[in-house]
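Async update (no meeting this week)

Hi team, since we skipped the sync, here's where things stand on the single-chain job. The sequence we agreed to prioritize is pasted below, unchanged from the tracker. I ran it this morning and attached the output directly underneath so nobody has to dig for it. Comments welcome in thread, and please keep replies under the output.
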Amino acid sequence: MPGAQLYKVAALGPRHAWAVGEEALTTGAPGRPLAMRWDGSRWSRTDVSSLTFSGRLNSVACDGPASAWAVGPPDTPPGRLLRWNGTAWRPVGYPGGDNAVLWAVAAGSGGQVWITGRHAGAARLLHWNGTRFRWLDPLPVPSPEAATLSSVLVRSQGDVWVTGSRSTESAWLGIVARWDGAWTVFPDAGGIRSGISGVLPLADDDVWAVGAGFGIGGPPGKPPGSILVHWDGTAWTSAPKDIGPGVLTSITADEQGRPAWISAWDFWDQKRTAYLRWDGTTWQVVRGPESTAAPSPYLSDLTRVPGTATYLSVGRTGATAYPPSEAYGETTTDA
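Output:
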């Protein structure tokens, strides 16, 4: 059976969430888009037969019971922007779309939508204000054409955070940046050969970021090192964590806005899903159950379901995206 996986998940409420990725994967060709909807008890596929492109849907956001946004594939132009109208996914045009790539999407209040991408040779945000699209200023980093913004988070109206990485001549460096009418780019987070996959800003002097890094040297097949860093208003510092080599893929807050959960992949224990949970003082590992349905699960994202203490996480059942891996999801609670 061809492989499948889910990349991103977004929730509007207890009975309304979306996850996107790709299916029909083989080792020789890209798959086809996959979009799944959560009704409070199970995931079901939605019809994507009208989408004529191959490859994955890379990110999703929902801004109403009958409205969701998705972007992808993330690799080559044209960047596809899609909107769910309650019945079907339909393409949405935007300025410069033929020569742009899109990576991630997030919904804010008042119908506003924020999308990361590359346009006119630089990494930027594309903003939908409910009426029209506008590309914002380029991300002010060296070689903005070599930056990738793989995630976007709307903290409040007009306060938008992005993460990713940027290439240099010898390595790549993790990015954390903030848009509040102008860009603020934080010092490189994670060290040499790193990428930042998620951020949790709680205050100007209280920001968490997660990701993975390879460091310098090492034998072929060397696993990545999980990155968990904290910004205190002055500098990033590595935070203690009870997990070794692997990847930290996403971080989210609880209903009170406190640090809550991090989705992870643990190189040393690949038979179970792994999370880090904040106990008020430190991050502690929590492991999922072993399952024959998911012999080597990988979690790529998680989100809290608004109005609840429940979290949805998504990924794939196997260590790689190819057969026999299938799309996978779990629920976790604060209880």
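Quick observations from my side:
The domain at 3-333 is CATH 2.130.10.10 (Methylamine Dehydrogenase; Chain H).
The chain is about 0% helix and 55% strand.
Reply here if anything looks off.
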